[in-house]
Amino acid sequence: MSMIRAWAAKKAGDKLEPFEYDPGPLGVEEVEIAVDHCGICHSDLSLLDNEWGMTRYPFVPGHEATGRVVAMGAQAKGVSLGQRVGLGWNSHSCLHCRQCLKGAHNLCENLQPTLLGRHGAFADRVRAHWVWTMPLPDGLDARECGPLLCGGITVFAPLRELNISPTARVGVVGIGGLGHMALKFCKAWGCEVTAFTSSDSKAEEARAFGAHRVVSSRDSEAIGKLAGTLDLIIDTVNVSLDWNALLAALAPNGRLHVVGAVVEPIPVPVFTLLMGQKSVSGSPTGSRGAIDSMLNFADRHQLLPQTEHFPMSQVNQAMDHLRAGKARYRIVLDADFSETPP
After folding, report:
1. Contacts for 278 with CB less than 8 Å, ≥ 6 apart
2. pLDDT above 90: percentage of residues in the chain
3. Which of 110, 171, 189, 336 has a beta carbon 3.0–4.6 Å from 94's, enabling a disulfide?
């Protein structure tokens, strides 16, 4: 098997440099994907900088890949050579633990994320177990849909797993890479949608993405006017908020659901939960079944992220663009490896 060409960092915070590695023999249940496009998620940046203390170097980011199947292990199933497929946050699960057996592969006791302990998809090829190699619907633009495989499923999964009604009143905190997709999904789901944003400049865009109203997440008084009205609030940001105001905005039986990587503890006033029978929860990406449902839903409603494209050879400029908070709203790298190493 030939060497894989990629972009890697040698240590935390380093620029990404050309890198080659030998992937070894293809596993019997593995699929090798020729990467055409790969989205950049903020998690790529967090792992590059080792913010979570779990990155191994050299580190190849990338977990929102779309491409074509170029090799299959002898026992790989569900895809065929040449098929358009995608790969998201997870790449392997054991298939025999309690979680896998009930279809919650994303909660597998032996889950293998695409970026932890292995190399990701800022590369010409990437490998994954066949379960996590998702066929893409013909109606979805493979150039644009990579971010659905991590960011998209992260905000779609709560609607599906929490059995949210299409008549529900849903709030989305943060109109960024996750939040703008959440607005699109919630609107198509049928919900009445309130967008919370700290940026006044995003108000009109939030409405275009599907919000029926826009409220400043910095204005506790404005949030207070929503007291008791929202059935679900999806928090997509990774910063501390006015948690009391958001919990007060929930209707009885309402839920504050966190999908952003908030590193500080969230203070929860128990009596607010008790008296309104409210709850606070969180979730990772989603199972293989949930991702398939999300892709079919996105295909039916033609829901795609708003993207900016960079050649993969300009990956450092793209990462700096994300680090500066300038992405509107997801960045996608287009693989441009030549016949010689990059």
Report:
1. 247, 250, 252, 253, 254, 255, 256, 272
2. 94
3. 110
For the record, the structure tokens of 340 come out as: 């010689």
58 upstream amide cis, omega within 30 of 0: yes
Say whether 152-282 and 4-150+286-334 share the same fold.
Answer: no
CA dist., res. 204 & res. 228, Å (int): 25
**Is the model's pLDDT at 16 over the cut of 90?**
yes
Instruction: Give 150-168 pLDDT, tens digit per residue.
Output: 999 999 999 999 999 999 9
Question: For residue 21, is the peptide bond before it cis, meaning its omega torsion is within 30 degrees of 0?
Answer: no
Confirm or reject CATH 3.90.180.10 for domain 4-150+286-334, answering yes or no: yes
Residue 341's pLDDT band (cuts 50, 70, 90): very low
18-71 per-position pLDDT tens digit: 999 999 999 999 999 999 999 999 999 999 999 999 999 999 999 999 999 999
288-301 vs 151-161: helix crossing angle, rounded to 10: 100
Residue 268 confidence (pLDDT) above 50: yes
Smallest Cα–Cα separation from 296: which of 150, 145, 151? Answer: 145
**Domains in the chain: boundaries:** 4-150+286-334, 152-282
What angle separates helix 288-301 from helix 179-189, to the nearest 10 degrees? Answer: 70
How far from each other are the two terminal CA atoms of the chain, in whole angstroms?
19
What Cα–Cα distance (Å) separates residue 166 from each residue in 150, 170, 185, 232?
Answer: 23, 10, 11, 12
- Tell me the pLDDT tens digit for each residue of 293-330: 999 999 999 999 999 999 999 999 999 999 999 999 99
Q: Which residue has the tokens 């009596």?
A: 271
Q: Where are the alpha helices (DSSP H) in 120-242?
A: 151-161, 179-189, 203-209, 220-224
- Give the amino acid at 257: H
**Residue 21, pLDDT score:** 97
CA 223 to CA 211: how far, in whole Å?
Answer: 15
Name the class of domain 152-282: alpha beta
Residue 217, judged by CB atoms within 10 A of its CB (0-12, 13-18, 19+), counts as: buried
User: pTM for the full model?
Assistant: 0.95
